[in-house]
Specification:
The chain is α/β, with parallel strands linked by helices and 346 residues long. Helices cover 34% and strands 17% of the residues. It is built from 12 helices and 16 strands. The chain has an 8-stranded parallel barrel with strand order 3-4-7-8-9-10-15-16, surrounded by 6 helices. The two termini are 19 Å apart. The chain binds flavin mononucleotide. The site of flavin mononucleotide has 25 residues, from loops.
Length: 346
């Protein structure tokens, strides 16, 4: 039952009476749409030149290189997947412990462990190519040249749909300030990556730790980004009062999971208002309603991260649940919902 039906019942007797209201409210979408089924709901979305069968992608760093999940998940049914962040050289990562649970969330300090871009191309990509799923390579570096070199290596490889630039990294050449915190640095690294990415779309994944995400979003859009991914984890920490030590080997980490959803939802809304390119939302998505919330705030697609730790099949399961939810609201295309948030108060 919708909340306004209760308002009617409690405060303003409905002329048709209680039964009529309830009958109206419980009228299922299938009765309202005879011959139509949840399977008829169109979840396909376009982001620039890329088309996705559904808008739910597995997020970087929470789905390995995709292959690790292939025995648990039918990769061919995913909207897409984003690889673990790839660097110029292999990185061993941060000391254990690397993960720790927090109220409604999780802290991680994996330290961007990865096999390095060349090993990815040689050892992972040939197996990934066998699946019918758009794969985006997540790219990072500690200076502009690193980003460019990773993309240059990937440009020679087959089987990728696009690149996602992780700019939540310290720029060592500029005193360690994150690329993602400074509009000029974000613009500079996007410009360099854009020049290197001749074959494929370029998404830029923004840091959530900014005073005005619109500024960064516009700076990156102006340099040719095809889409924005909003957002990465939030710097945070957890301590053990008994040992008086951090719960993470790296001392600090990134907060993710349901705890961050309300904060990131606002960032998606703010970023979407600032740019014309599509926004991909992620942060704390676990359910179909979480997906719809992000779409309502303007996201064209979403990614699922931490939820895969509890349920590796969540990204495969969500499309059917989103279809069911849209069907129950008489909505037959997810695009109808995009940005349909009513900003007026009341
Ligand atoms: C263990 C772990 C590793 C991650 N590694 C990366 C990474 O390599 N590159 C990146 O851009 N984001 C990385 N992220 C961030 C996620 O892709 C995502 O932005 C964040 O976790 C928020 O989404 P969620 O709340 O659904 O997890 C990582 C997150 C986690 C939990």
């Amino acid at each position: 039952m919708k909340w306004w039906a209760w308002v009617d019942l409690n405060h303003r007797p409905h002329p048709q009476g209680l039964r009529a209201i309830l009958m109206h409210e419980v009228t299922s979408s299938s009765a309202a749409n005879p011959g139509r089924f949840p399977a008829d709901v169109d979840l396909s979305v376009a982001i620039g030149a890329l088309r996705f069968r559904n808008p739910i992608l597995a997020a970087s760093g929470t789905f390995g290189y995709g292959l690790e999940f292939a025995h648990l998940v039918d990769l061919n049914r995913l909207g897409g997947l984003v690889t673990k962040g790839l660097s110029r050289e292999p990185i061993e990562g941060a000391p254990a412990p690397r993960l720790c649970e927090t109220p409604s969330g999780m802290l991680n300090a994996v330290g961007l462990q990865n096999v390095g871009v060349r090993a990815f191309v040689e050892q992972k990509l040939p197996a990934l190519r066998k699946f019918d799923v758009p794969v985006l390579a997540n790219v990072f570096g500690s200076c502009q040249e690193d980003y460019v070199e990773v993309i240059r290596v990937l440009e020679d490889a087959e089987g990728l749909a696009g690149y996602e630039l992780n700019i939540s990294c310290p720029n060592v050449k500029k005193g360690g300030l994150q690329f993602g915190n400074d509009p000029a640095a974000a613009a500079e690294v996007t410009r360099a990556a854009r020049k290197a990415a001749l074959k494929r779309p370029l998404w830029v994944k923004l840091s959530p730790l900014v005073a005005d995400i619109g500024l960064i979003a516009r700076a990156v859009e102006a340099e040719g980004a095809d889409a924005l991914t909003v957002a990465n984890t939030y710097p945070a920490m957890a301590v053990d009062h008994r040992t008086r030590r951090s719960r993470l080997g790296n001392l600090t980490g990134g907060l993710s999971g349901p705890a961050i959803k309300p904060i990131t939802l606002r960032l998606v809304w703010e970023a979407g208002k600032a740019v014309k390119i599509p926004v991909v939302g992620l942060g704390g998505i676990e359910t179909a309603i979480d997906v719809l919330d992000y779409v309502l705030m303007g996201a064209t697609a979403v990614q699922v991260g931490t939820a895969s730790f509890a349920d590796p099949q969540v990204s495969e399961r969500l499309p059917a649940e989103v279809r069911e939810a849209l069907f129950s609201f008489n909505v037959f295309s997810i695009s109808e919902l995009r940005g349909n948030f009513h900003a007026e108060i009341g």
